[in-house]
Amino acid sequence: xxxxxxxxxxxxxxxxxxxxxxxxxxxxxxxxxxxxxxxxxxxxxxxxxxxxxxxxxxxxxxxxxxxxxxxxxxxxxxxxxxxxxxxxxxxxxxxxxxxxxxxxxxxxxxxxxxxxxxxxxxxxxxxxxxxxxxxxxxxxxxxxxxxxxxxxxxxxxxxxxxxxxxxxxxxxxxxxxxxxxxxxxxxxxxxxxxxxxxxxxxxxxxxx
Length: 208
Ligand SMILES: Nc1ncnc2c1ncn2[C@@H]1O[C@H](COP(=O)(O)OP(=O)(O)O)[C@@H](O)[C@H]1O
Ligand SMILES: [Mg+2]
Fold this sequence. Notes:
The chain is α/β, with parallel strands linked by helices. The chain has one domain: 3-Layer(aba) Sandwich (Rossmann fold), CATH 3.40.50. Helix content is 47%, strand content 14%. It is built from 9 helices and 6 strands. Strand 5 (101-106), helix 5 (110-129) and strand 6 form a beta-alpha-beta unit. The relative contact order is 0.19. Bound molecules: adenosine-5'-diphosphate (ADP) and magnesium ion. Magnesium ion (MG) binds next to helix 1.
């Protein structure tokens, strides 16, 4: 499966979720490729910070032709994760065209909910060419037991695509792990790794 993590808004968790989902899938023995489609190259930076053995392959491909090259580049992999760019529309469009599933991280903030319009427009455009394209929101940096956490799910329900039941909480371990080029489960098996596993399981359920 090809999963694109997309949202033109920066700082929503595209890279954080990309590396952790890739690691989670690779952990089951699947061959996983992470494509860094963001010119900023954060996923490449993550891989470069790593001292231990790589968990999966990472390549940088911030090109608007990604959708044309994906079959060739992704040959032999079970799963491909695309870490999408912020802002650059032609790159985001190409990443959407390359994906089977577009996962849109959103933070529980009204700004993130309003900004989701943009990515939904691109998905609607791409759906004209790809009628089997699937997509969903995932709430990231949720602060547990707050009204805003519940409000965000309600607000997102107004959009025409589903919201994953699994959510990712605000946890400092995500930044700590990233600093060492590691997945959260490598630092500690705990709530963060359990949440990532739940997101991965729900995604796999969607594509069945
Ligand atoms: N669930 C989380 N808990 C705590 N920090 C997070 C979480 N998700 C992302 N971050 C932090 O937020 C910042 C932006 O995340 P990032 O994945 O780089 O977003 P994007 O790729 O969408 O720009 C990073 O510093 C990252 O460590
Ligand atoms: Mg990023």
